[in-house]
């Protein structure tokens, strides 16, 4: 990064992504390099390129100019040295876990995680004997107590999915570093606009680029970025063998989406604040989970760690599962669909969708109830959104 770019704020850097030089000029918009490979005149140069993550472009599974631009752009926003883009968010998580852990290793994870991550941790235990201990994401003492001689890694989410608990990144990452552990943080809900975990001691940050980075519900992708070159190179070598590479067109869509990230996050957060306050006053709602509410257990640490409280909230309906199902059948503007982070507002029932692989005990540990609804707030007018939610909350149970 040049000194000039270092002085730019994140929203500006997201607009001005790294561009290749072409005949002494640069394109305004990043082109799509839709090619599976590149030709060489010198076989020695080609051979060297295949062994270096920062070398010449040789084959699409290794890298691509459009993909590398995305990797550099996200690494720049997160304050990382480099990144590896993947075909999905779970691809990013898996290149890190599988690239750094071996059979018999142990890791510590926070006890409120995205369901896909929790399911993968279960697979690691079943297939490879990689064991997991779950602790609160804001309890460094619990992390220290959970560590064993074979512990290698700590896994956290800046804002947890779906209960929006905020991790104590400074405390947990400092503890991990003191103990010689690699700290990995899923920053999908916060984005680099609300939090940059590497600034708080994280070693690796992962994103589902499908969500806020892409931002328009039209791309599936992921990325892992690294504070340390050695970790980056280790994971990059594993990733190209695993074949989890990002597609150039998907990378291009993500880059295009990132240019409006700051504008969208401002609206996501303000809309979420408006709806969380209204929901908290509604008699059909037993509890609202959003870290911008004073009643939320993460309210104070979130105010210190985050520059905004995020666009996702969850709420528990007093009528339990029947009320949740009636609500989701009744929304009209909000859409019943998976994922989040797009311009549209989406709702889902975590216990039967995003976290369906969890046992009843694991759901309780995560705080997810039968009547819990996750609301990924879009950028529509807040009064229109509230009118839709209010009419859905009035519908009788069936």
TrEMBL record:
Question: Where N6-(pyridoxal phosphate)lysine occurs along the chain?
Answer: 211
- List cofactor names only: pyridoxal 5'-phosphate
Enzyme Commission number, as recorded: 4.4.1.2
Alphabetized, the UniProt keywords read: Lyase, Pyridoxal phosphate
Task: Tell me the organism.
Answer: Nonomuraea maritima
* GO MF annotations, alphabetized: cystathionine gamma-lyase activity; homocysteine desulfhydrase activity; methionine gamma-lyase activity; pyridoxal phosphate binding
Cited PANTHER family: CYSTATHIONINE GAMMA-LYASE-RELATED (PTHR11808:SF85), TRANS-SULFURATION ENZYME FAMILY MEMBER (PTHR11808)
Q: EC top class, in one word?
A: lyase
What CDD domains does this protein's entry cite?
A: CGS_like (cd00614)
- Gene3D superfamilies from the UniProt entry: Aspartate Aminotransferase, domain 1 (3.90.1150.10), Type I PLP-dependent aspartate aminotransferase-like (Major domain) (3.40.640.10)
Family statement:
Belongs to the trans-sulfuration enzymes family.
Q: Name one GO cellular component term.
A: cytoplasm
**InterPro entries assigned:** Cys/Met-Metab_PyrdxlP-dep_enz, PyrdxlP-dep_Trfase, PyrdxlP-dep_Trfase_major, PyrdxlP-dep_Trfase_small
Q: Which reaction does it catalyse?
A: L-homocysteine + H2O = 2-oxobutanoate + hydrogen sulfide + NH4(+) + H(+); L-methionine + H2O = methanethiol + 2-oxobutanoate + NH4(+)
**What is the official name of this protein in its record?**
homocysteine desulfhydrase
Q: Which GO terms describe its biological process?
A: cysteine biosynthetic process via cystathionine; transsulfuration
């Amino acid at each position: 990064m040049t000194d000039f770019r270092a002085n730019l704020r994140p929203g500006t850097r997201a607009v001005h992504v790294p561009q290749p030089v072409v005949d002494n000029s640069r394109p305004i918009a990043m082109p799509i390099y839709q090619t599976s490979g590149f030709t060489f005149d010198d076989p020695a140069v080609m051979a060297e390129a295949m062994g270096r993550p920062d070398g010449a472009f040789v084959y699409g599974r290794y890298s691509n100019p459009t993909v590398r631009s995305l990797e550099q752009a996200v690494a720049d926003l997160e304050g990382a040295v480099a990144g590896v883009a993947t075909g999905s968010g779970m691809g990013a998580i898996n290149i890190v876990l599988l690239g750094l852990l071996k059979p018999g290793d142990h890791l510590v994870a926070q006890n409120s995680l995205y369901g896909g991550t929790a399911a993968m941790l279960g697979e690691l235990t079943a297939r490879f004997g990689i064991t997991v201990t779950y602790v609160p994401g804001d309890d460094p003492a619990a992390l220290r107590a959970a560590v064993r001689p074979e512990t290698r890694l700590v896994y956290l989410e800046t804002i947890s999915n779906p209960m929006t608990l905020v991790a104590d990144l400074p405390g947990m990452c400092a503890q991990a570093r003191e103990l010689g552990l690699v700290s990995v943080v899923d920053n999908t809900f916060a984005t680099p606009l609300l939090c940059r975990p590497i600034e708080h001691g994280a070693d690796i940050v992962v994103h589902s680029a499908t969500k806020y980075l892409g931002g328009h519900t039209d791309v599936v992708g992921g990325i892992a970025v690294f504070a340390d070159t050695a970790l980056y190179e280790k994971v990059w070598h594993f990733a190209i063998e695993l074949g989890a590479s990002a597609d150039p067109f998907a990378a291009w869509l993500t880059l295009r989406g990132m240019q409006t990230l700051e504008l969208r996050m401002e609206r996501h957060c303000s809309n979420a604040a408006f709806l969380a306050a209204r929901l908290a006053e509604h008699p059909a709602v037993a509890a609202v989970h959003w870290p911008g509410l004073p009643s939320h257990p993460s309210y104070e640490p979130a105010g210190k760690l985050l520059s905004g409280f995020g666009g996702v909230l969850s709420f528990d309906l007093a009528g339990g599962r029947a009320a949740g199902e009636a609500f989701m059948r009744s929304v009209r503007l909000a859409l019943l669909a998976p994922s989040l982070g797009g311009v549209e507002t989406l709702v889902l029932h975590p216990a039967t969708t995003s976290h369906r692989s969890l046992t009843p005990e694991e759901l309780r540990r995560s705080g997810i109830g039968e009547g819990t609804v996750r609301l990924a707030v879009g950028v529509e007018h807040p009064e229109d959104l509230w009118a839709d939610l209010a009419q859905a909350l009035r519908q009788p149970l069936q």
